[in-house]
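Hi R.,

Here's the chain you asked about this morning:
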Amino acid sequence: MSRYYPEHARELKRELLAYFDHAELRELHQLRPGRHFLIVARQILILVLAAAGAVYYTNPLIWIPLAVAMGFTIFNFTVLLHEVVHLAVFPSSRTNLWLNRVLGYFYAFPSGISASQFTKWHLDHHAELGSSTQDPKRFHLSPKQNKRWLKLLYFTPALFVIYFKAAAKETATYQLDMQKQIKRERLFTILFQFSLMGLSYLLGGAGVMLRVYVVPMFLVFPIAFALNRLGQHYNIRPEDPAQWSTLVRSSWFWNFWFLYSNLHLEHHYFPGVPFYNLPILQKRLQPFYSKRGMKAYGYGELLYRYIILNGTPHTDWQPAKSARAIPATA
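And here is the predicted structure, written out as tokens:
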């Protein structure tokens, strides 16, 4: 790998570090496993209660919102896996590295992905951010044609075909032992998914399977995935490494439903900061954003510019009049 991003972001890193003293940076990077697992418990509770409600209620006005909550929560297990990838759960130790590995497998189950594939794919993405060919996410997963119909496919069950095809192409470049490990993990998680689907059918028939598995997993999950990805690296300024990620406004709603992964720009600036500290980091970087004239976007405006105005991924979409700098109280 060329490590494209570190090579192009040296000056950016120095500039960012100038906004903090050592004590503040240590505090931002402090890992609180208790807080992490409270969030995990909340996610599991949402999933269990929403599933129970979807089993019991057949009224679409009730079970559809519950299915939406389930779909976003299933997606958020990939966010939890992302924390594991960056060793942002436990303070470092040999025991905790083993626990991280176990957690990674657990967090990979709900979405049916391979923890090892996700780990390598994502770390390579960090190393090669900004490159149109070396960044595996951009090279394999981003739409190759700027067609509205193609971009909309990512919000549908077609996402699974698109994602696994992209992952397979990148995995083919890995060493053979890594390929075998990924194949074993993916097979295991897929069997887990079929088990869940079969169990939901046995417990309540086709209706229950539809409400608690098919709709959340195949209809809602792709929407959560594609919307989250839309706020990562699609609206950027290629000439400025500081803006190779999209600045998304912090809000209590998206901080809750995306587990702070909406604050993706800040994550790339400081990958070791745990997700629950990203809103604080964004507030502290307000002077940096203002100095560079950077604008913050909401998902509604990004979706409008991406689909309606047909913005090309990984380009500058020209800030809309409604875009604004993040207020200090955001």
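One quick note: The two ends are 38 Å apart (CA to CA).

Cheers,
M.
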